[in-house]
């Protein structure tokens, strides 16, 4: 799938915002990056995700302080296990209703590693396994990765650690 430079730049900027918000714990820097996404790419679907992270859509994702699990009162939940992992981890998510799900993995610098899922899914609990390979089937290096699950205008993210 070909992605335009504008889309890639938008995704990278959003990914960096996620890293600052959840990994570096620099809310101010993350907020600036999310605002840049919204201002520079207002028609991009990722701008919706940036608004959600800023709390402007009424649904803000967050990391539980002691794990990578994300839980919302709306019934939309996601987490991965085991974490840390080697060589694979399972991402489990629960959907409150039927809808399109996009699940992507990002590396620490915010670049997309692979899209694991982009399909309609029924309500309920589902799992997807990531085998620590990129979109070309190459093994990725040990380190910190992020999953990003998008569903119904909401986005949830989590941090994973690959230890070889």
Characterise this structure.
- The protein is built from 3 helices and 8 strands; from the N terminus they run H-H-H-E-E-E-E-E-E-E-E.
- It has helices spanning 5-24, 27-40, 45-54, and strands at 70-71, 77-81, 89-95, 99-107, 112-121, 124-130, 143-151, 154-162.
- The longest helix is centred in the first third of the chain and has 20 residues, at 5-24.
- Residues 57-73 have low confidence and may be disordered.
- Helix 1 (5-24) runs antiparallel to helix 2 (27-40) and helix 2 packs antiparallel against helix 3.
- A hairpin with a 5-residue loop joins strand 1 and strand 2 (77-81).
- The strands form 2 sheets. A 4-stranded antiparallel β-sheet has the order 1-2-3-6, with no helix packed on it. A 4-stranded antiparallel β-sheet has the order 5-4-7-8, covered by helices on one side.
- It is α+β, with helices and mostly antiparallel strands and 164 residues long.
Layout of helices and strands:
Layout: H1 5-24, H2 27-40, H3 45-54, E1 70-71, E2 77-81, E3 89-95, E4 99-107, E5 112-121, E6 124-130, E7 143-151, E8 154-162
Antiparallel strand pairs: 1-2, 2-3, 3-6, 4-5, 4-7, 7-8
Helix pairs in contact: 1-2, 1-3, 2-3
């Amino acid at each position: 799938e070909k992605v335009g430079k504008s889309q890639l730049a938008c995704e990278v900027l959003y990914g960096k915002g996620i890293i600052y918000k959840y990994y570096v714990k620099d809310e101010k820097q993350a907020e600036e990056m999310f605002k840049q996404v919204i201002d520079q790419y207002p028609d991009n679907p990722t701008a919706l995700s940036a608004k959600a992270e800023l709390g402007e859509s009424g649904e803000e994702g967050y990391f539980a302080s002691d794990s990578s699990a994300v839980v919302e009162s709306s019934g939309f939940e996601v987490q991965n296990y085991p974490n840390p992992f080697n060589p694979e981890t399972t991402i489990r998510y629960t959907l409150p209703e039927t809808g399109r799900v996009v699940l992507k993995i990002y590396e620490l610098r915010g670049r997309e590693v692979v899209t694991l899922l982009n399909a309609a899914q029924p309500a309920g609990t589902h799992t997807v396994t990531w085998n620590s390979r990129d979109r070309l089937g190459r093994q990725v290096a040990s380190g910190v990765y992020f999953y990003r699950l998008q569903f119904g205008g909401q986005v949830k993210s989590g941090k994973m650690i690959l230890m070889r």
